[in-house]
Amino acid sequence: MEAPYISSSTALGRPSSVSGLINRRVVLKSRPGVDGVPQLSNFATEQCATPNDFNDGEVLVRSVFLSIDPALRCRMNEATGVHYLTPWLIGRCVEGVGGVGVIEKSHSPLLAKGDVVCRAMSWPWQLYFKTTADSLQKLDVEELGGDVSVVLTCLGLTGLTALLGLREKGGIKPSTNQTCVVSAAAGACGSLAGQIAKLEGCKKVVGICGTDAKCDFVTKTLKFDAAINYKTEDVDKKLKEICPEGVQVYFDNVGGAVSDAVIRNMTQDSHIVLCGQIAAYNKTAQYPPPLDGHIQKIIEDRHITRDRFLVLQYEDKFEESLAQLKAWLKEGKLILRHTVESGLENAPRAFVNMMNGGNIGKQLVIVSDI
């Protein structure tokens, strides 16, 4: 497991007491507009009171890590365009899709002060927050090798999306010489998907990235067979050179022109794992956006499957899949990389940086020390 890239450093600390402490949170100050690019000015960091009134079953959590994810862009709009995410409210605390924290006060037999916990789908960008103990998962820090961030980078929704997306929608058949293409290949999900495609039996894996540094990362560090810089190279032409036999599996994180080029190179009865549409997150088009008529005809004529993948529809397979991810990590078969921004007040900067392609691997924010 490679060391993370730390993009900034802020003096963090481990508070000795929560009594009388001033809390901090990030709020949504304004919306960028449905077609706008997120800006730092859309956010504000403010002080707020630390919760001190608890009912039975409730706990006080101190945030340690925040998961920063592209899908959060949808929540900046008044209408998210997806049924499973609600919009952020102006002046209210921003809520992410995952985090890790430490229990500071407990009014529940399920958790004790000092326990390290995580939760997916709902984690406020706030230093201290109150929630119910039964909504949190206690982590075994020793079992995780002391690196609790791994539940956000691999052993959580990101890793499950990569693995189950390929297994449920990718149509990978070992020993059939399949080629898999992954867009946003240096990102949180893409970097795992490419490695997993190899482990699942694909003969060739090609990554599509936006910088030469990212292309070098996926080929030299993650051992992809090839990489294409879509900003400086003709994706269609390069795929024909790298994959003369065509593409059988496409893990689509971006949509747009990049995906159109990949689809033109896909073979009969091939499969698209529709994971994300980063190219459309700042646009008004429906999600996922409709395809160009020519591209849609290719999909129909070649019987290419293109099904939207939502990992939460496969909760019955989470336990088995997490066991597989843990085994690969233990065997050294998966390499993880994450970009870390330090300080709660820098969470907006981390988000804007990620939306501009500034991250390699998972984008995280470290809020406080364990």
UniProtKB/TrEMBL annotation:
Swiss-Prot/TrEMBL keywords: Oxidoreductase
Secretion signal, residue range per the UniProt entry: none
Oxidoreductase in keyword set: yes
EC category name: oxidoreductase
Protein known as: 15-oxoprostaglandin 13-reductase
PANTHER family given in the database record: PROSTAGLANDIN REDUCTASE, PROSTAGLANDIN REDUCTASE 2
Catalyzed reactions per annotation: 13,14-dihydro-15-oxo-PGF2alpha + NADP(+) = 15-oxoprostaglandin F2alpha + NADPH + H(+); 13,14-dihydro-15-oxo-prostaglandin E1 + NADP(+) = 15-oxoprostaglandin E1 + NADPH + H(+); 13,14-dihydro-15-oxo-prostaglandin F1alpha + NADP(+) = 15-oxoprostaglandin F1alpha + NADPH + H(+)
GO terms, molecular function: 15-oxoprostaglandin 13-reductase [NAD(P)+] activity
Alphabetical GO biological process terms: prostaglandin metabolic process
Domain Alcohol dehydrogenase-like C-terminal: 190-278
Protein family (similarity comment): Belongs to the NADP-dependent oxidoreductase L4BD family.
Documented EC number(s): 1.3.1.48
InterPro entries listed in its UniProt record: ADH-like_C, ADH_N_2, GroES-like_sf, MDR_fam, NAD(P)-bd_dom_sf
Superkingdom of the organism of origin: Eukaryota
Chain ranges of the Oxidoreductase N-terminal domain: 24-136
